[in-house]
């Protein structure tokens, strides 16, 4: 059975509605279909859980979903998905879901080979390197671009070319994507945003940031923000959120961060 979050079928044709309680109040509509959204944050901030629960949401909405992980083996991800009472194998058997673990070094090597073949032209076909030929997804999750980037050690210009091709591919195939970037510090808060982060931020249509908060009293909390969403009206505020067993992320749109705090 297809589930429409917020009960709206017409809205679901143009927008992907994230399966995260409270997040709907931060958008006018949702994530425009075909957007490439970067999910950014520090370690443990909730990026993987955000993607896993949206993977469940996308499957329930009848979309074809590809979840690519560079971090964890497939079986671990299937286990994490059980946290949402979701039977990944059922959707995999129906051909609606593909969970795949990749090795970032293999990708870097293949890109290297393609680039040396392409010589002058820096146009390469990323599909064989990344997207399985026999599976065209509506929604793609990549956990994470940071792992891919570290495999291109010292070759950041190659990573940039590869990213340009990837974003172009996603756009031309109208694939909605959530691309995780792990950052030691929230890169959009300071005045320094450089290198790989910058390249990816510029290319993306949307940026969602997960924060770890330290309050004055030493307590830690969680917060999130939609920083950018091309073609969509968003409420610009950093709001509290939580990670709850069985539910995943829950966003509190009416609780903007207050008082003295630091974001990490
Ligand atoms: N079942 C759960 N119930 C509550 N919190 C959880 C659960 N599983 C993980 N978490 C919390 O989520 C955090 C990890 O989120 P994750 O998405 O893996 O982070 P990231 O991918 O950003 O590194 C952990 O630090 C943990 O506190
Ligand atoms: Mg993670």
Provide the fold topology:
Layout: H1 11-14, E1 15-16, E2 31-32, E3 36-41, H2 47-60, E4 65-69, H3 74-82, H4 88-93, E5 97-101, H5 104-118, H6 127-130, E6 139-143, H7 145-151, H8 156-172, E7 176-182, H9 195-203, E8 206-215, E9 220-229, E10 239-244, E11 248-256, E12 261-263
Parallel strand pairs: 3-7, 3-8, 4-5, 4-6, 6-7
Antiparallel strand pairs: 1-2, 8-9, 8-12, 9-10, 10-11
This protein binds adenosine-5'-diphosphate (ADP) and magnesium ion.
Question: Key terms for this structure?
Answer:
single chain; 264 residues; alpha/beta; Rossmann fold; two-stranded antiparallel ribbon; 32% helix; binds adenosine-5'-diphosphate; binds magnesium ion
Summarize this structure briefly.
The chain is an alpha/beta fold.
